[in-house]
Specification:
homodimer; 2-methylcitrate dehydratase PrpD; 60s Ribosomal Protein L30, Chain: A; 2 domains; lyase activity (chains A, B); Mmge/prpd family protein-like protein (chains A, B); MmgE/PrpD_sf_2 (chains A, B); MmgE/PrpD_sf_1 (chains A, B)
Chain lengths: 465, 465
């Protein structure tokens, strides 16, 4: 019944069913996504895809973000390209329980459809966005963690389903049509982790957006699929979660409609016991793998301490960090050669925090990673695994050449659920990402995105980005 | 090395490397595919997709088959829609070792690209077609049968890879670009078996064609992916074949370049020991699951016997068939309600063979399945599982009301590798499928397709279909 549950819940949810904090989380998710998509709009992964696929572009009905309304293409390709752009700097949001980056596939599809069709208010848009994000996170929870461990990029494998449910909601499809849309989306399983480190990683959420959009449009037209796409013996969960024992029970748990059976299931919100996954969504202060965030946070704090005390990073003698064991496993690259490799180097993360007091996309440009000054500090950083630390915890000790010691203990890195980025930090991140693309239009774009809830027609928002 | 092997083999193969029987198999595969795609062009699965997606169609550069050049759309959507049409009657070809329907994804992508770009000869086309079909069948063999058993529709999960390799070959991509194309295709794993029985089943080969085409176009533009997309720990084979033990050895076996390591690997043809998978491709005489073919064959032969002896099917008293156990497991539907269900009824298969002496799409139309005359005979058919029979074997005994007994023993059903459809049968199948769509243009279309090898520009062929 999981597929039917999901479809009927999605169809029945009303704006008034959602608490204010859920709506606020959706606004923040959209805002962060828009900044990432604008900021990633000039990356080669985006521009190569744009140029290569331009012979196929259909009627110009949907805007490419970062082009300020000057470039419109068909909605399918807009969903693809905005989805690619939003993920390409590894700077998008993270549902920490599943490490799904939920907004990319859903918002990329939704914004394209909203502009193509026209006439949808900000509230229509946010309702559909929330429905889609809940859908992808709930189905992701049902197959997590084995699904990811095997090698699936869970953002896109669940993202097509989330995008399909969201577009179905926006277009007002029936339960039966939404069920078919889920099926057409579920059968398109995009995303192998082996692609990490190449352009194809960011292709994944883009293609998920496009696949989900297509699924909803086909279902609206009467295209049929299975009514048990998620739970059938040879349906989505059993096939992509084949190594997970007891997956039927997990589907019930996360997609249940019955409060007695589950306290986490979708569709339980009206009973007051449901868990909104969007409230567990987090935002990255730094454009790299989340395991490096604690050390950038601590190093940035030490940068502040040095400034206060009139010290200079050039005078650092050595840096010793204690980190969670995953950090060195995933990001232990000692000598990164370029920006992309820098994202997999905890040592680079420490160096930029200490030198610049920040870790933005600028500090991951190739020339920074290759800068002798940065390399000098990077080589002085030593990291030691400590099993007693949490995944978002670190202790960093910098010893200056005069013997002075600066130490910071970060228990929960900024951007975690415990220490979330506040609205001001999100705005600085937006401006920082988008200024080079939008120029003096950046403040206006920021305001438009913050005010998405009050937009009369979301098409007008898309055009201005 | 599997990915690199496949790419470098594909790039190096020349037309002169291929024996005449391989080229002939490719011509027959193309011919059969074109008939299926034209024959399926008016099916709701095709027309709904066409209508629903038309708002996204780009510049009209590629023809929809069955429209005789009157409908051109962008090449991506042409690949999708022709791919859907070619599979929708379950009448396309079958690589029996993997039950991949290999030509749909590859030819649908290739023909669209050939027409879009223009200037490719029939020989260019056939070379790329063969390269693509070998690619998808070899990677399919590496994950078979566990991959299919888990629930993947192997035609499309391998088809995107085959289409990407084929389009890369046609466009003359380098080994490095072809490797990237394989990666972008491999990361798009489309097709759950749960969708069988709905429109989404035929969406699978169409989407595989489109995904493979897109992969090659992106790779040509410089888009990067993994260089070990197929064999990496979290690459295609390990992820989609996660339940298969020893998959690394199977990749070596089927994608090896070294005759000492394997006698089946791709790229061994020049050493004279390679196995061409296209020579193991078969064609369906009947538009239904292959397990019903023996009983239709035997019943059709009995129809001939009745005719010779002046008997009428109306006077059949009872029919008793011995069949392989899989037949009743997969197609034991006693009372099919419509054409689609009829394809899963061995009893309907016997009835149409006995009454009409054939089993073409006409005999699977709803009104035939619901015809009282057909139902009367169908209800008289009894089938018994017999483990001693082969999967393509049956014994059918019809008892007439006057006590006369007619018996046929089919050891290998027509369409099997042992009793292949000859060229005349393929031509009758083509005409039978396409006459209603093409009218009096059907013979000309048949001739154009047979002569594909000698086409100066394949774009001219596409236009005429």
């Amino acid at each position: 019944m999981a597929t039917h549950h999901l479809a009927s819940w999605a169809c029945s949810l009303k704006y008034s069913d959602m608490p204010q904090n859920v709506i606020q989380a959706a606004v923040r998710s959209f805002y962060n996504w828009a900044g990432c998509a604008i900021g990633g709009s000039k990356h080669p992964a985006t521009t190569i895809a744009h140029n290569s696929l331009s012979p196929f572009f259909g009627p110009p009905t949907a805007s490419l973000l970062g082009h300020q309304g000057k470039t419109k293409i068909d909605a399918q390709h807009a969903a693809l390209l905005n989805g690619i752009a939003s993920h390409v700097h590894d700077y998008d949001d993270t549902h920490l329980d599943t490490i799904i980056h939920p907004t990319g596939p859903v918002a990329s599809a939704l914004l394209a459809v909203a502009e193509w069709k026209g006439g949808f208010s900000g509230k229509d848009f946010l309702l559909a966005l929330i429905v889609g994000i809940e859908a992808e996170c709930k189905v992701g929870l049902a197959v997590w963690p084995e699904h990811y461990d095997v090698g699936w990029h869970i953002t896109s494998t669940t993202g097509s389903i989330g995008a399909a449910v969201a577009v179905s909601k926006l277009l007002g499809l029936s339960i039966s049509q939404t069920t078919n849309a889920i099926g057409v989306a579920a059968t398109q399983v995009v995303g192998l982790r082996e692609m990490f480190g190449s352009h194809t990683k960011s292709f994944h959420p883009g293609r998920a957006a496009q696949s989900g959009l297509m699924a909803a449009v086909l279902a609206e037209g009467g295209y049929t699929s299975s009514e048990q796409a998620l739970e059938a013996k040879r349906g989505w969960a059993n096939v992509v979660g084949v190594t997970k024992p007891g997956i039927a029970a997990d589907l019930d748990k996360w997609l249940g409609m019955n409060a007695e059976a589950s306290e986490h299931g979708v569709g339980l919100f009206s009973a007051g016991v449901g868990r909104w996954e969007i409230l567990r969504n987090s935002f990255k202060p730094f454009p790299c793998g989340i395991v490096i965030h604690p050390i950038i946070d601590a190093s940035t704090q030490i940068h502040g301490d040095m400034k206060t005390q009139g010290l200079d990073a050039q005078n650092i003698k050595s840096v010793h960090a204690k980190v969670h064991p995953l950090v060195l496993e995933l990001t232990g690259k000692r000598k990164p050669k370029d920006g992309l490799e820098g994202k997999f180097s905890v040592f680079h993360g420490a160096a930029i925090g200490l030198i610049y007091g920040k870790g933005t996309p600028s500090e991951y440009e190739d020339h920074v990673v290759q800068d002798a000054k940065v390399i000098a500090i990077r080589d002085k950083v030593n990291a030691e695994s400590d099993k007693s630390l949490g995944a978002d915890e670190t202790i960093v000790v910098a010893t200056m050449s005069d013997g002075k010691i600066l130490e910071r203990h970060v228990k929960h890195a900024v951007g975690s659920l415990e220490v979330p980025m506040d609205d001001g930090m999100l705005q600085r991140k937006f401006v920082d990402q988008c200024a080079a693309v939008l120029g003096d239009r950046v403040q206006a774009a920021s305001e438009i995105c913050w005010d998405i809830e009050y937009a009369k027609d979301v098409a007008d928002v898309a055009k201005l980005l």
